[in-house]
UniProtKB/TrEMBL annotation:
Species whose genome carries this gene: Sulfitobacter brevis
Entry keyword annotation includes Transferase: yes
Pfam short name (any one): CoA_transf_3
Gene3D superfamilies per UniProt: Crotonobetainyl-coa:carnitine coa-transferase, domain 1, formyl-coa transferase, domain 3
Listed name of the protein: CoA-transferase family III
Lineage: Bacteria, Pseudomonadati, Pseudomonadota, Alphaproteobacteria, Rhodobacterales
Length: 200
């Protein structure tokens, strides 16, 4: 997981460290800007991320601030790179004018990047996770029905399918011992001596 996160996050931040010897520091200034964060709406939190020039222009129009798009400090990539604190403050102010549902509808219509911030409880009802069958219910022989978290990568291989439920104490001790290379006679001897206990 650590290596995956490094591979996912570091390409944006290599900057001067991409060269050997290094030609500068790490860090993509826009991404590590302290004001780049989820914004509070009327009923929750929302990530609102206009990115391209066209997206910023559509965002300005959507919040009734179309005149901002005529300002070279906001209309060009170079200008925006100097003014992200101000731009994020504009988003922060605008975010409070709508609910998450209203923002979702508007940002989809304007084709602007966004993401609603879910609470942990809301993840159970997330449409994407439901469509991917991320939570499945399995009947456990002693504990009843258990909701399990699915594997995040779906393949046609059985390697990503749930094959065993949580084990009961000593349930698979014989099978595990045999799998570790003990002979059947050695396993029987350990059972007889009480060194090994089994319910399987």
């Amino acid at each position: 997981m650590f290596e995956t996160m490094v591979a996912f996050l570091m390409p944006e931040h290599m900057a001067g460290q991409s060269f050997e010897p290094p030609r500068g520091k790490t860090g993509y200034a826009r991404v590590i800007n302290p004001n780049r964060r989820p914004f509070r709406t009327q009923d929750g939190l929302m990530c609102i991320l206009p990115y391209t020039g066209d997206q910023w222009l559509r965002f300005f129009e959507a919040i009734g601030r179309g005149e901002l798009g005529e300002n070279p400090e906001y209309a060009t990539p170079a200008g925006r790179s100097r003014n992200y604190d101000t731009l994020y403050a504009i988003i922060e102010e605008a975010a409070l004018t709508k609910t998450n549902a209203q923002w979702t509808e508007l940002l989809l219509e304007k084709d602007i990047l966004f993401g609603e911030v879910n609470s942990v409880d809301q993840l159970f009802d997330d449409p994407h996770l439901q469509a991917r069958k991320m939570y499945t219910v399995h009947a456990h022989p002693t504990e009843g029905d258990l909701r399990m978290i699915g594997f995040p990568v779906n393949t046609r291989s059985d390697a990503t399918r749930l094959r065993l439920l949580a084990q009961r104490l000593e349930e698979h001790s014989v099978g595990v011992s045999l799998g570790l290379g003990f002979s059947r006679a050695e396993v029987d001897a350990m059972l007889a001596d009480g060194v090994l206990k089994a319910t399987d």
